[in-house]
Specification:
Blueprint: E1 12-19, E2 29-37, E3 43-50, H1 60-63, H2 67-70, H3 76-87, E4 91-94, H4 97-110, E5 119-122, H5 123-130, H6 139-145, H7 156-177, E6 183-185, E7 221-224, H8 232-241, E8 245-247, E9 256-258, H9 267-274, E10 278-280, H10 282-288, E11 324-328, H11 332-344, E12 348-350, E13 359-362, H12 372-377, E14 381-383, H13 385-392, E15 417-418, E16 425-431, E17 442-449, E18 461-462, E19 474-479, E20 483-489, E21 499-506, H14 512-515, E22 518-523, E23 528-534, E24 542-551, E25 554-564, H15 568-574
Parallel strand pairs: 1-4, 4-5, 7-8, 7-9, 9-10, 11-12, 11-13, 13-14
Antiparallel strand pairs: 1-2, 2-3, 5-6, 15-25, 16-20, 16-22, 17-18, 17-21, 19-20, 21-24, 22-23, 24-25
Length: 581
């Protein structure tokens, strides 16, 4: 541990944690580093310490924190007072800030301590907002971009030191562009629930509900509610080993609910009664496990016969495919029209005056935009609608010099991209205009749906209060005020999931017409696969952004852009989620 003299207004505290796993409600903090930073990048007070979790430290090959190294370290409650003092009154800054904040919040709750953090900033969201000319937004990539030496990756102190410098450079660039920083309020309603049972693949068809006098059949879906004599995860393992499918939430597909307290008023038991399901005790379950009847093996998913391969002509290079153009001024309809014409030319419409913008299209009133001084300072090319119209009439446009090389292929609304089988880890990121004066609260969500276009259970609905599926296949990632992402591990997606639908919704009186263009990008681990700009909304309060769906043995990506005038609750109900009144 170390301390330095506090200098200036150190309103930020840069934090990094190493953990025993990826889920805060199940895993533990192994080390933590925190340092206060002022707006000039000067480091004030510091804290760096190992933390003894009293359990298996998990992936030692990543963080190098063996049980022997952690044995003499303090427990979290011992280091919490000093850590909370650093956090108090400051905005937490971290790379994937929801991850670090979630772990610290849950550790504080276990220790009975109130974590004082009210706001956080994700440096991934900041990097995406700036549109830096980098292939991805990993900490190592950003460190190389800003020429920051990274000497010991996955060491909490070194990562925090590197991140402090990356954040300082990025924030300075944002200020020069007059882009607001993506600070969000920490509003998650985190609760120390009983252990969540990880989703495991079941090889048997679901035979339906447990009959009143019948026995268990392989493939039945079992939900456990309340306290159990046998530890929940061990009991779930016994049930799974018998060929049953253990779920965490009750739905119309549930077969039986296990609850030893018949008087409980838990939500799971209430839903079981509403669906007419049988509720049994833990002892009854153990008795029934002695004689589980054979089930019906799941059939293989019908394979779509591939169409004969047709030799496609080489794509025609579009004249403006290396340009990123920001439209200023004009009415909503005028902006939509001109952005569609830019797409015809191959340009990528921008939603903010970021570092990646190469040109500005000025519509009526655009010359009075408050960002114009920064446009002139950067000497960006100014375009007019007449110039766009003339360019579209050129039959064989003269090639323009390459100005930016990292703009991913632009996919039109409804277009389809076949995903390379090598891409199993993907993130669907969406962003919209960052504007401090009239911020619209947009929530990005995901639905894992079956062939009937319905979720199999409520845990297949990922949103701000349930930010991950139990198996980790789909989870929320970055969380800026105008950037949000959904991380997808295709290798973990359940077989019965036919498609993953990414949507967004607005709470309140605002609409997507107020939001304007929404930029969507599908990112692999090292680079962006495809981008799309959705720009046709007016009165809608919810919108389907994109979907990733099965096609034979592979996956496809399709941007959608379909809007609805109702909100998130109505959208969730359409996909089969049971929404409380």
């Amino acid at each position: 541990m170390g301390n330095a003299v506090k200098t200036g207004r150190d309103e930020w505290v840069v934090v990094d944690v190493e953990t025993s796993g990826l889920k805060a409600s199940r895993d533990w903090v192994l080390s933590v580093a925190a340092m206060t930073v002022d707006e000039d990048g000067r480091v004030g007070r510091e804290l760096s310490t190992l933390v003894n979790p009293g359990c298996d430290p998990g992936p030692v090959h990543i963080h190098k924190l063996t049980p022997e190294r952690l044995a003499g370290a303090p427990t979290f409650d011992m280091i919490a007072p000093q850590l909370m003092d650093l956090l108090d009154g400051r905005t937490l800054v971290a790379h994937n800030a929801s991850f670090d904040h979630g772990f610290l919040k849950l550790e504080s709750m276990r220790a009975g301590i109130d974590m004082p953090t009210k706001q956080r900033l994700c440096t991934v969201a900041l990097s995406r907002r700036l549109q830096l000319d980098t292939p991805n937004h990993k900490l190592s990539t950003l460190a190389a971009h800003w020429k920051v030496l990274q000497s010991n990756a996955h060491d909490a102190y070194d990562d925090a030191r590197v991140l402090a410098q990356v954040f300082t450079h990025s924030a300075r660039l944002a200020r020069s562009l007059e882009l607001p920083l993506p600070v969000v309020t920490c509003t998650e309603r985190l609760t120390l629930y009983p252990d969540t049972v990880p989703r495991t693949h079941c090889t048997w068809e679901n035979p339906g509900p447990l009959a009143g006098d019948g026995g268990l059949i392989q493939g039945m879906r079992v939900v456990i509610s309340g306290d159990t004599r046998i530890p929940r995860l061990r009991l779930a393992a016994q049930v799974t080993e018998a060929g049953l499918d253990v779920m965490n939430s009750v739905s119309r597909f549930t077969s039986v609910v296990v609850c030893s307290d018949p008087t409980t008023e838990s939500r799971k038991v209430e839903r079981a009664r509403a669906h007419g399901l049988r509720i049994i005790s833990e002892s009854e379950l153990l008795d029934l496990l002695w004689d589980v009847q054979p089930g019906t093996p799941k059939g293989t998913r019908p394979q779509v016969q591939p169409k004969p391969t047709v030799q496609q002509p080489d794509p025609v290079a579009k004249p403006w495919q290396t340009r990123r153009v920001l439209v200023m001024g004009g009415s909503h309809a005028d902006s939509v029209l001109m952005r569609s014409r830019l797409i015809q030319l191959g340009a990528t419409p921008a939603v903010n005056l970021s570092a990646g913008v190469t040109d500005i299209l000025i519509l009526d009133g655009g010359d009075g935009d408050p960002r114009m001084p920064k446009v002139k300072e950067r000497d960006l090319t100014l375009l007019t609608p007449a110039a766009i119209d003339r360019e579209l009439k050129i039959e064989v446009p003269a090639p323009l010099p390459a100005r930016r090389s990292r703009i991913a292929p632009l996919v039109p609304r409804g277009g389809v991209v076949d995903l390379d089988p090598c891409f199993t880890m993907l993130t669907l990121n969406s962003s919209w205009r960052a504007d401090e004066s009239d911020q619209v609260d947009v929530d990005v969500v995901a639905f894992l749906v079956n062939d009937d276009e319905l979720v199999s259970s409520d845990e297949d609905f990922v949103f701000y209060n349930a930010p991950a599926t139990s198996d980790g296949a789909v989870s929320m990632s970055i969380d800026g005020d105008s950037e949000q992402g959904v991380r997808i591990d295709l290798a973990l997606v359940p077989e019965e999931c036919a498609r993953i639908v990414i949507a967004a919704a607005i709470d309140g009186d605002k609409t997507f017409g107020d939001v304007g263009a929404v930029s969507v990008s599908l990112d692999g681990v090292d680079s962006t696969v495809a981008t799309a700009v959705l720009d046709a909304a007016t009165t809608e309060q919810s919108m389907l952004l994109a979907e990733i769906y099965r096609r034979g043995s592979g996956w496809r990506f399709r941007p959608i852009g379909q809007g609805y005038d109702d909100g998130l609750a109505e959208l969730a109900v359409r996909y089969g989620v049971e929404v409380d009144e």
